[in-house]
């Protein structure tokens, strides 16, 4: 940080002299000064990260980005510098402020680039000097490491990849020998992550998706892939059976100091110890969906659609919604549309197709989202999904004839259940 001791001394002396005779008045522009000389940056978490890319001795904060914001006006900063170029004294109009520090402009996904942020509030009074306290920066993105066991490596060819997708857009591709840590931006409202495996295993091309939930800033998800004995239910996107050997995953959620927060041998829907009780006592929690009743891990319920009969899309009241409940969390939500008059070309015109997976909509994302279908993170790992097709009922009613929606829900353990929705649009 640059020093300006002479300026600081002059300002301090002026304040002392003017205050002695009682005649000093605040300047007309009602400015005060912020003393930034004591505003050090403490990377509280940096030395705790289990990593090779940084160590406590190697932390250099001179390039950290510093921004001062007027209270309630967080869109545009009033002052910006790097920490190494920040002056010791800065004049500001009287008022409340927040100074924020960040290690860099965080990316959606980056190799070996942990992100640190912190902030401090302070108040400027006219004609006074305010000392700004040090800022403590915390680890603020998500660390992901992947380990492939030796027995699984022996079955995989070099084309095998583990693609991690988080925050809706961030993506990194890990090979079976990748040792680097990936760092993903943590977004509010986006708490799911998926690892997509694809590769040749014992001569068979295998594709499998592993969803993770409860993703949050400051986590280190250490994922291990290994072989799994015994067959697994066939997967629509590609089987994982190969002579009775399959691929499985386990996850350890570590504190950044390396302590294990929890560990699971399979991809969980809930953390151990946080599952809903089997027989809850007291009133039902309205924030938690009711799990499926009985031994069926997936269930369908609707208050607006007749799940057994034929529905007229033009006369449905209260919306067209099916609640899909999964006690393990969903991995896929496949939809097939069959219609007498609404053919593939007509569906493509409105951004849809005759077959799609709402968990991984691909090129259909825009069209599905435009009709308010749940997609992506709203499906993956969710225990309750509102399959809302209300906005599709109006265009559907314009095509006379019978229409069928085949909805197949599949959970993270391979369990699946199918629902057939029937509609009829009368001719005008």
List the defining traits of the structure above.
428 residues, mainly beta, Immunoglobulin-like, 3 domains, six-stranded mixed sheet, 10% helix
Structural commentary:
The chain has helices spanning 5-20, 150-155, 344-349, 365-370, 390-397, and strands spanning 31-35, 41-43, 65-70, 79-82, 89-93, 95-102, 109-111, 116-124, 129-131, 135-139, 142-148, 161-166, 170-175, 182-184, 193-201, 204-212, 220-229, 245-254, 260-264, 298-301, 310-311, 321-326, 330-339, 355-357, 384-388, 401-411, 416-425. By secondary structure, it is mostly beta strands. It folds into three domains: 5-139, Sandwich (Immunoglobulin-like); 142-264, no CATH class; 298-425. The longest helix is centred in the N-terminal third of the chain and has 16 residues, at 5-20. The termini are far apart. The relative contact order is 0.10.
Summarize the structure.
With 428 residues, the protein is mainly β.
Number of strands: 27
CATH class term of the largest domain: Mainly Beta
Give the percentage of residues in beta strands. Answer: 35-45%
Q: What is the share of helical residues? A: under 10%
Low-pLDDT runs = 1-28, 50-57, 230-244, 257-294
In the residues, how many domains can be counted?
A: 3
Task: Give the SSE map.
Layout: H1 5-20, E1 31-35, E2 41-43, E3 65-70, E4 79-82, E5 89-93, E6 95-102, E7 109-111, E8 116-124, E9 129-131, E10 135-139, E11 142-148, H2 150-155, E12 161-166, E13 170-175, E14 182-184, E15 193-201, E16 204-212, E17 220-229, E18 245-254, E19 260-264, E20 298-301, E21 310-311, E22 321-326, E23 330-339, H3 344-349, E24 355-357, H4 365-370, E25 384-388, H5 390-397, E26 401-411, E27 416-425
């Amino acid at each position: 940080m640059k020093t300006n001791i002479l300026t600081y001394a002059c300002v301090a002396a002026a304040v002392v002299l003017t205050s002695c005779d009682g005649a000093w008045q605040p300047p007309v522009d009602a400015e005060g000064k912020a003393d930034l000389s004591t505003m050090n940056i403490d990377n509280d978490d940096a030395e705790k990260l289990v990593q090779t890319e940084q160590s406590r001795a190697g932390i250099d904060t001179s390039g950290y980005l510093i921004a001062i914001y007027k209270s309630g006006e967080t869109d545009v900063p009033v002052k910006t510098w790097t920490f190494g170029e920040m002056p010791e004294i800065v004049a500001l109009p009287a008022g409340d402020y927040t100074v924020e520090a960040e290690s860099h402009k965080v990316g959606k996904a980056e190799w070996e680039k942990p992100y640190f942020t912190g902030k401090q509030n302070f108040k400027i009074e006219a004609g006074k000097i305010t000392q700004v306290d040090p800022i403590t920066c915390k680890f603020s993105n998500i660390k992901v490491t992947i380990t492939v066991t030796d027995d699984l490596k022996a079955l995989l060819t070099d084309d095998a990849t583990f693609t991690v997708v988080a925050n809706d857009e961030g993506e990194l591709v890990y090979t079976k020998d990748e040792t680097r840590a990936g760092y993903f931006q943590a977004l509010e409202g986006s708490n799911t992550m998926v690892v997509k495996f694809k590769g040749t295993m014992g001569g068979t091309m295998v594709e499998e998706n592993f969803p993770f939930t409860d993703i949050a800033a400051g986590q280190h998800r250490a994922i291990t892939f290994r072989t799994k004995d015994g067959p697994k239910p066939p997967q629509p996107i590609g089987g994982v059976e190969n002579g009775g050997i399959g691929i499985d995953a386990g996850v350890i959620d570590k504190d950044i100091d390396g302590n294990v927060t929890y560990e699971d041998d399979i991809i969980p829907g809930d953390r151990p110890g946080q599952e809903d009780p089997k027989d809850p006592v007291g009133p039902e929690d309205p924030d938690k969906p009711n799990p499926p009743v009985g031994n069926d891990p997936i269930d369908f319920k609707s208050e607006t659609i007749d799940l057994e009969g034929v529905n007229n899309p033009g006369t449905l009241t209260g919306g067209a919604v099916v609640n899909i409940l999964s006690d393990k969390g969903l991995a896929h939500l496949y939809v097939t549309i069959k219609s007498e008059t609404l053919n593939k070309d007509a569906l493509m015109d409105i951004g849809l197709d005759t077959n799609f997976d709402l968990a991984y909509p691909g090129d259909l994302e825009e069209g599905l989202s435009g009709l308010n279908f749940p997609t992506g993170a709203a499906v993956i790992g969710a225990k309750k999904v509102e399959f809302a097709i209300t906005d599709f009922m109006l265009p559907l009613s314009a095509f006379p004839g019978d229409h069928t929606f085949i909805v197949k829900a599949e959970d993270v353990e391979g369990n699946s259940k199918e629902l057939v929705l029937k509609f009829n649009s009368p001719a005008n």
